[in-house]
Amino acid sequence: MYQPPHFREERLDVQHALIRAHPLGLLINSSEDGPNANAIPFLLDTHASPQGTLHAHLARANPQWRQLAGDGRVLIVFQGPQSYVTPSWYATKQETGKVVPTWNYAIVQVRGTARVIEDRDWLRQHVSELTVSNEAPRAMPWAVDDAPETYIDAQLKGIVGIEIEIAAIEGKWKVSQNRPESDRTGVADGLAAERDTAGAHAMAELVRSGGPNERH
Questions:
Q1: Does the pLDDT at position 196 exceed 80?
Q2: Which residues contact 4 (CB under 8 A, 6 or more apart)?
Q3: What is the DSSP string of 79-112?
Q4: Which residues pair with 160 in a beta bridge?
Q5: Helix (H) or strand (E) segment spanning residue 139
Q6: Please, what is the average pLDDT of the chain?
Q7: Average pLDDT estimate for 119-147
Q8: Alpha-carbon gap, residue 178 to 213, rounded angstroms
């Protein structure tokens, strides 16, 4: 990943927080037919290895798991907040006019070697933990045990687990920290006023935070 120093986020806890907040990762591997990618939800275990271990599952009908059983090297991309930035928000536009649009984003990339798991008990525990992590905020959370056990057993036969010990992890926070303070203020205010609250408002907070270099 192209990494200008001022965009690099090296704190492991911050990288892990993005993965937890945006657990749908793009799982990428190389196959005989070229690159292969699938978006799947991951669970992060920070205690299993020094940089963390990722757990997920694939449909048994998905050929990617068989590719991983041969060459398990993978890249996983976790996309955090992102937003278009118009030059109209820059104070510099009024001063010199020498501005162009850009795109702000926060992203984490993980590399490791996937281990394929077909053990029924591992899969049962994994889907239970994955469900709890996503259902917990709900007033009436659904649980795996709410479904008939015979039905769950049939569903488990249709998936394959993967475990990836993180060998390398990179974070990139491109949040206007390369712009003058007046421009950053304009970007944060502009994003906060956008109707697209999901991405724009989260990015406004990251811009106000100053970026990795100013937070160390």
A1: no
A2: 178
A3: EEEEEEE-GGG-HHHHHT-----EEEEEEEEEEE
A4: 58
A5: none
A6: 94
A7: 95
A8: 10
Whole-structure pTM value: 0.93
Q: What are phi and psi of 150, to 5 degrees?
A: -65, -35
pLDDT score, position 94: 82
Residue 97 pLDDT > 90: no
Tokens of 129: 């933990």
CA angle 166, 168, 172 (to 5 degrees): 115
Residue 33: predicted pLDDT: 86
> Each residue of 148-173: pLDDT tens digit?
999 999 999 999 999 999 999 999 99
Instruction: Round the CA-based radius of gyration of the chain to a whole number and report it.
Output: 20
Distances from the Cα of 58 to the Cα of 38, 48, 79, 100, 162, angstroms? 9, 21, 20, 42, 8
User: Can you tell me the distance from the alpha carbon of 174 to that of 8, in angstroms, rounded to the nearest whole number?
Assistant: 8
Residue 93 has which token pair?
């536009």
- Distance separating alpha carbons of residues 29 and 2, to the nearest angstrom: 19
Three-class SS of residue 51?
coil
Cα 106 from Cα 81, distance rounded (Å): 6
Q: Which two tokens stand for residue 180?
A: 């003058």
Residues 79-84 have a mean pLDDT of 95
**Helical ranges in the chain per DSSP H:** 12-21, 64-70, 91-95, 120-135, 149-156, 181-192, 202-209, 212-215
